[in-house]
Amino acid sequence: MFRRTGLWLLLAALVILGDCRSASPPPARRLNLLLVTIDTLRADRLGCYGYSQIETPNLDQLARRGVLFENAVAPAPLTAPSHASMMTGVYPTVHKVRNTGGFMLSPANTTLASILQGQGWDTAAFIGSSVLKRRYGLNQGFAIYDDQMPTSASGSALEEPERRAGEVVDRAVQWLQTQSGKPFFLWVHVYDPHIPYDPPSPFREKYRDRPYDGEIAYTDQQLGRLFDAVAGKSKPEETLIAVLSDHGESFSEHGEYTHGIFLYDTTLRIAFLMAGGGLPGGVRVKQQARTIDLLPTVLELTGGKAPPGTQGTSLAPAFRGNEVPTAYSYSETLFPKLNMGWAETRAIRTNRWKYILAPKPELYDLEKDPAESANVIASHPAEVQELAAQLKAISGTTEKVAPAAEDPRTMQQLKSLGYLGGSSPQELTGKGTDPKDRIEVLRLLHLAVHSGAPMPERIAMLRRAIAQDPDNPTLYNNLGNLYAEAGRPADAMKLYQDALQRGVHTAWLFSRVGSLYLRQGNKAEAIRHFEIAVRLNPSDYESMQNLAVAYRETGRIADCERILNAILKSGEEFAPAYNELGMTAFQKGDVAAAQQYFEKAARLDPTYQLNLGRFYKMAGDNPRARAAFEAFLAARSSSAEYQRMIPEVRKELAAVQ
Ligand SMILES: [Zn+2]
Fold first, then answer.
1. Among 16, 43, 216, 458, which is most buried by a count of CB atoms within 10 Å?
2. How far does the centroid of ligand 1 lie from the alpha carbon of residue 100, in Å?
3. With the CA atoms of 319, 323, 326 and 327 taken in that order, what torsion angle do they form, in degrees rounded to the nearest 10?
4. What's the rounded Cα separation, in Å, for the pair 612 and 602?
5. Phi/psi at 193 (nearest 5 deg)?
6. Which residues surround ligand 1, an ion (CB under 5 A)?
7. Is-cis flag, bond preceding 454, omega within 30?
8. Looking at the domain assignment, is residue 130 inside a domain?
């Protein structure tokens, strides 16, 4: 099984030598690293993990060339926390990215990218979904962080903007071609298997009844192009490739449809492959492997050392069949608490047992019952005691998680708006509604959002769910979306106001009420609500942007610019902010600056070509106005607002011919 004994002896010698010399030795080995993360990929849907009904030749070949971890697990069934653990080698309790959205990876963390960059590696990341945008801090250590999503301006409220694997791989391959000589760390994140499942042709037809599988097969095909490009750039023994999923997908098992609610293996188990860089081929590791082990493993292979405080361990000894200290894997999900108003849950997993700490705790014997169908907690008190002690060592049972400060000013603002008794920010106690007792609510929510039933039925389903679970923010969010889709803004406003009066105080609700006030022209109320939304969630750039617009329209130019500059300070190329700075500059009479901002916004997002065209038209520059209007019409955004504008823009184009 293990063929490259010579290399391992050499590596071991280098590590010992490094230890003798200094605390942080320079990297002994120049090793390129390609990290591919595949969102929402269940391990058991890949050929190399034993699934016979799919074609994933590129990942299967990678597994044959290298190491496959049969029992790999994520520390959270959520995109941002799971990725943050890969990048830092610590659990979410330490890196503090506890949920997707609203939490930012603080610069106090040390990331794999920043370590390698510090040692002279070229670093670049290409991201497939807005849920990992720069604002969430995972860009730390990446010289290039390409997170530009298509037509972000006003897409559907129901979906996070994403781009297909083909486009992400194109961008990554382009970057690879500019590489000359320095070792590199390239991270490619592909989002396709995430809901909605809509693979492009020919996978759409080939996997007609299994679109999720179709997304995976398509992703595999695109990754084949990426692997070829990497092979063209660097020799296999000089290139380490790691492929991981961030979490799985539940497909109605345990009453869950997607991921984030429960800590079962449907969503915690992941695919984890490593190959190249001198690793042995055809190795299958049965010992549990955790995503926090990625960073120490990579650093050992490059001859470096994991920083102090790393909770993961190098998996390299397991390649030779040696024991690694990965027996216990911690996981948590705060999604039930923060998004649904229920209790958060935590778990400890070993290769044999899973102990879930919930209001009604659970224990599963994974060897006898891999489907986790029989809770055997009553018959195994000794195991429970031991696992509970392990869990307690990693995570206390009470703590405060406040994405934003519960500062007196926010409380005063809430009070002045008449919203009392709010539940944000959150205190974790492990108490509250057990997510297992809300299966019917999950079912109604899923059907209302994804079933394609007629609108009145979907609305009725969510009404029923709210009657059963009236403090659940996600239900209000989704019903509000349906009202918006159905053209019923007054019903949406009443719904949100009811929720706020009940004490359901999420940033999202304040933001929606602000937007509705803005539509009514009530700028003062819009500002009051957006200000709270922004304080509760400082990564909500969309609300910040709306707040900036409302400030400008009420003559508060300095406040407007302050907010926009705060967005752009993060380094994220947020097109709406550039457009709005253009409006502000124009209002102040600074035409040259306005032009620059409008051009920048239009370069980032072609739907802003409209404003640019109008600007040129006003300046009497008809040829440029024409080009901009044409670029707008060629943008082909699917957003309703864009579609509505098209006839008007055609008229404007005709006027400048
Ligand atoms: Zn994910």
1. 216
2. 9
3. 140
4. 7
5. -65, -10
6. 39, 79, 246
7. no
8. yes
Q: Give the model confidence (pLDDT) of 467-507 as tens digits.
A: 999 999 999 999 999 999 999 999 999 999 999 999 898 88
Name the more confident of 161 and 620. Answer: 620
pLDDT at 83 over 60: yes
**What pLDDT score does 400 carry?**
76
Note the pLDDT tens digit of each residue in 113-149.
999 999 999 999 999 998 999 999 999 999 999 998 8
Q: What's the CATH number where 72 sits? A: 3.40.720.10
Claim to verify: residue 382 and residue 415 sit in the same structural domain: no
Look up the domain containing 434 and give its range.
400-539
Say which residue the tokens 């995430």 belong to.
194
Total structural domains within the chain: 3
CA of 189 to the centre of ligand 1 (A): 10
Which of these, 542, 466, 538, lies nearest to 504 by C-alpha position? 466
Q: Predicted confidence band at 9 (pLDDT cuts at 50, 70, 90)?
A: very low
Asked if residues 94 and 75 have their Cβ atoms less than 8 Å apart, the reply is no
Question: pLDDT by residue (tens digit) across 329-347?
Answer: 999 999 999 999 999 999 9
Domain-located, residue 635: no
**Where is average pLDDT lowest: 224-228, 434-438, 500-504?**
500-504
Domain presence at residue 607? no
Amino acid at 286: K
Shared domain check, 367 and 305 = no
Same domain assignment for residues 414 and 352: no
- Same domain for 257 and 303, yes or no, is yes
pLDDT recorded at residue 592? 95
Nearest CA among 86, 421, 106, 129 for reference residue 271:
86
623-to-266, 594, 602, 620 alpha-carbon distances in Å: 57, 18, 16, 9
Same domain as 422, residue 378: no
Residue 466 placed within a domain: yes
Taking the centre of ligand 1 as the mean of its atom positions, its distance from the CA of residue 195, in whole angstroms, is: 10
